[in-house]
């Protein structure tokens, strides 16, 4: 079974490719988290977790959901993480999560995909994003091949920088950067509610036809990147930056 969390579609694309090759089912972790659903899931023996990388680890809301959710009949677990640059030492924390759930840890695969974190970085234009996805395809295929034969992933890089970023920097990043206070809308907001619908933490509500953000935010960028009128900004940091979500690339 494939457990997929996705902010702006990269993980969803990878999960669909894995599911098609393995002829397996995808569980939408976004929907589970949004519904506060921690009910047991009958997974089969092999579990593949597909997520983006947030602050050099899997998103906290994903690890929290996995910690609380029983994976019935699961024996082995692979982690597939996409990122704009690197995953740091995320494998250490994925291994710990696997051990916590008494599962055989089969490794962590890093797949470079288009950047979406416009609260800090620039997202690529569509043509550049398509090139990044094209370059990722062989890694995705190698990842699938390992899972198919129940093989361990190759051990990812693990240097001092990686350990520092996934270790001390991760909690600092969440404490000081992962906040919704800078989100705002301009006059082009049409009150469509897409941001409310796409928020996995139910952190957005419409008041007088305009979105209001609460204090529970994971910085998935779904609200700002899927806004049909690009009415949402993250303070001044997102102004002028292209919005990115995978579907706009029109890749089958």
Please describe what this structure looks like.
- The chain has 252 residues and is of the alpha/beta class.
- The chain has 2 domains: 2-173, Rossmann fold (3-Layer(aba) Sandwich), CATH 3.40.50; 179-249, Alpha-Beta Plaits (2-Layer Sandwich), CATH 3.30.70.
- Helices cover 35% and strands 19% of the residues.
- The protein has helices at residues 10-22, 29-34, 60-68, 90-100, 126-148, 160-176, 194-198, 222-226, and strands at 2-4, 26-28, 41-42, 46-52, 71-72, 76-83, 104-112, 183-185, 204-207, 210-213, 232-234.
- The strands form 4 sheets. A 5-stranded parallel sheet has the order 2-1-4-6-7, with helices on both faces. Strands 3-5 form a two-stranded parallel sheet.
- The longest helix is centred in the middle third of the chain and has 23 residues, at 126-148.
- The chain is globular.
CATH topology name of the largest domain, in short, is: Rossmann fold
Please tally the helical runs, counting DSSP H or I stretches of 4 or more residues.
Answer: 8
General form: globular
Q: How would you state the average pLDDT, rounded?
A: 97
- CATH class category name of the largest domain: Alpha Beta
Distance between the termini: 22 Å
Per CATH, which architecture of the largest domain? 3-Layer(aba) Sandwich
Determine the structural class based on helices, strands and strand pairing.
alpha/beta
User: What letter string, H or E per element, gives the SSE order?
Assistant: EHEHEEHEEHEHHEHEEHE
Helix content: 25-40%
Largest sheet properties: 5 strands, parallel
Tally of separate domains = 2
Portion of residues in beta strands equals 15-25%
Q: What does the radius of gyration come to?
A: 18 Å
Major sheet: arrangement of strands: 2-1-4-6-7
The CATH superfamily title of the largest domain: Flavodoxin domain
Number of DSSP strand runs: 11
Query: Which regions have little confidence, pLDDT < 50, spanning 5+ residues?
Result: none
InterPro entries: 4Fe4S_Fe-S-bd, 4Fe4S_Fe_S_CS, EFR1-like, Flavodoxin_dom, Flavoprotein-like_sf, PSI_iron-sulfur_center
GO molecular function: 4 iron, 4 sulfur cluster binding; metal ion binding
Function: Ferredoxins are iron-sulfur proteins that transfer electrons in a wide variety of metabolic reactions.
Cofactor: [4Fe-4S] cluster
